[in-house]
Amino acid sequence: MGTRYDRDEAYIVGLCDQVLGETALTQHKFDWLLGDAGAGGRQAKLPVDAYWPGHQLVVEYRELQHDQPMPHFDKPDRLTVSGVHRGEQRALYDARRDTEIPAHGLRLVVIRPADLDADNRGRLRRNQEADLAELRKILARDSDEDRVADAFRTWLLAEGWTPIDPTDRWTDLEAVRGDERLICEAKGRTSEKGIDADIAYGQLLRRMTSQEPQIRYALIVPSSAVKAVERVPAHVRRMLRIDVYEVTDDDVVHQLLA
């Protein structure tokens, strides 16, 4: 039978799945995230609580023992392969995750009981409606461009697309579905909608290095920029294989008719 921590972690990951529209890989291990070497010199891979590859996102759920001494968890009379007791090793490995995960191009979000509806002992009350509302805020990005890109990534997953590492490092998003490939440029709210729309079209044009018909291009913008991107006539967008998508203020995606 799992511990309460395991159950709370699964509860949080399940709510995150709802917010992101993707099922997490739980206890996932990366080749580059390693623990300290044991007596035989072997370094075990450190698991992360949850990884959403389509969002390039890792979530760590850290209960109270991650932030304060707890002899029951820390086992201060026993040393680990790191030469310190379990509590110190936990802090060491948490710091390694905090450094290595962003260094490898992934977004890391750390969630603690105090971020959700929990009592003063760190036990979650499982108030699903309130916890979902908080998780939406926690998982949201700081910039509107990030918000637009994340909403579109969720839509892609729902439509059967698989986000992949972009061929061009400057591409915001790239995804495949069967033989199809979609190369995307995302823009957020801006005071210079027309200029930014023109720049976005130019960025897509520079990425049209292949004549393969199964490759299409997407310009993703918030509702406030729709009129600006529609200044390029629909027949021109069709010839260039550019599709335009609107992301509303409540993160609903609509494809504009061309």
Question: What's the arrangement of secondary structure elements?
Answer:
Layout: H1 4-20, E1 25-37, E2 43-52, E3 57-61, H2 71-74, H3 86-103, E4 107-111, H4 128-139, H5 144-158, E5 162-164, E6 173-177, E7 180-186, H6 193-206, E8 215-222, H7 226-229, H8 234-239, E9 242-247, E10 253-255
Parallel strand pairs: 3-4, 7-8, 8-9
Antiparallel strand pairs: 1-2, 2-3, 5-6, 6-7, 9-10
If you had to describe this structure to a student in words, what would you say it looks like?
The chain has 258 residues and is an alpha/beta fold. The protein folds into two domains: 4-139, Endonuclease, Chain A, CATH 3.40.960; 144-255, Trna Endonuclease, Chain: A, domain 1 (3-Layer(aba) Sandwich). 35% of the residues lie in helices and 25% in strands. The protein is built from eight helices and ten strands. The strands form two sheets. The protein has a six-stranded mixed beta sheet. The chain has a four-stranded mixed beta sheet with strand order 1-2-3-4, with helices on both faces. A hairpin with a 5-residue loop joins strand 9 and strand 10 (253-255). Helix 1 crosses helix 4. The longest helix has 18 residues, at 86-103. It is globular. The relative contact order is 0.10. The model has no long low-confidence stretch (mean pLDDT 88).
